[in-house]
Automatic annotation (TrEMBL):
<keyword id="KW-0464">Manganese</keyword>
<dbReference type="GO" id="GO:0016020">
    <property type="term" value="C:membrane"/>
</dbReference>
<dbReference type="GO" id="GO:0008758">
    <property type="term" value="F:UDP-2,3-diacylglucosamine hydrolase activity"/>
</dbReference>
<feature type="domain" description="Calcineurin-like phosphoesterase">
    <location>
        <begin position="14"/>
        <end position="211"/>
    </location>
</feature>
<dbReference type="InterPro" id="IPR029052">
    <property type="entry name" value="Metallo-depent_PP-like"/>
</dbReference>
<dbReference type="GO" id="GO:0046872">
    <property type="term" value="F:metal ion binding"/>
</dbReference>
<keyword id="KW-0997">Cell inner membrane</keyword>
<dbReference type="GO" id="GO:0009245">
    <property type="term" value="P:lipid A biosynthetic process"/>
</dbReference>
<keyword id="KW-1003">Cell membrane</keyword>
<dbReference type="InterPro" id="IPR043461">
    <property type="entry name" value="LpxH-like"/>
</dbReference>
<keyword id="KW-0378">Hydrolase</keyword>
<protein>
    <submittedName>
        <fullName>UDP-2,3-diacylglucosamine hydrolase</fullName>
    </submittedName>
</protein>
<keyword id="KW-0472">Membrane</keyword>
<keyword id="KW-0479">Metal-binding</keyword>
<dbReference type="Pfam" id="PF00149">
    <property type="entry name" value="Metallophos"/>
</dbReference>
<dbReference type="InterPro" id="IPR004843">
    <property type="entry name" value="Calcineurin-like_PHP"/>
</dbReference>
Amino acid sequence: MTEFKSKAKRKIDLLILSDIHLGTFGCQAKELNKYLKSIEPKEVILNGDIIDIWQFSKRYWPKSHMKVVSQFFKWLSKGVRITYITGNHDEMLRKFEGFKVGNFEIQNKKVITIKGKKAWIFRGDIFDFAMQHSRWLTKVGAIGYDFLIVLNRVVNIFAQFLGKDRFSLSKRVKNSVKSAVKFINQFEETSTNIAADNGYDYVICGHIHHPEIKTYNTPKGSVVYLNSGDWVENLTSLEYHKGKWSIFHYHDHDFEYFDEPKTVDKNDLEYMSAESPKELYTNMLKEMMTKQ
């Protein structure tokens, strides 16, 4: 348990976040902000669906969402290396693969070496048949999922009022549906088999909102499968520090003593005035250029 009774920040060698879905009602941005301000990473990999362009609307861009973006830029200004791996909900960025400015880059996948072992980091939506062949159906599903998340937030407000822990309706639904469980298992097995075929020791994914660290034994050797989860239903990330991988799970009681700033930096106002996803990204890139 990590209670924040002091302002000391936890140091992390590598932080991997995915599926934040900024710009949607389901995004748990306030909780994510507390977490981000409590750590000090050396390197960050954002593994897709950070800003949900599918459902982005100027009508819904709260200050808490802007604070998440602002925190990433503060890390960049301090020399933290950040790689943005594109996802399906922010697919408009895929045409910018290879873009680099300072210590920020956009990639569709990434391979890193950790203590002599190769890690393949990629989004994972390439395994999603519905995404590839029935995009309209996937988007309808995303809207229904977002509605369930909103309903979940209302339920959790009452749960917290009654002194109960928060829980995820969508997670319970998925865990109770055999086809969903089967898809998760197939997703993990497919990614690890491909990783083994290409000589990778680790395969690190996002996309399916299911945090996991698991070792798979394949005909071509063992592969460690890792998934960073999400900040919609699980509130998780992957952390690597001093040679060890771990899944961080956010819990309200761990941050009872955390003092979150109530103001927004004046530089953030330019982002919040954006009228479209394109303008938002233009402002973000402009900010990166001025900070180098």
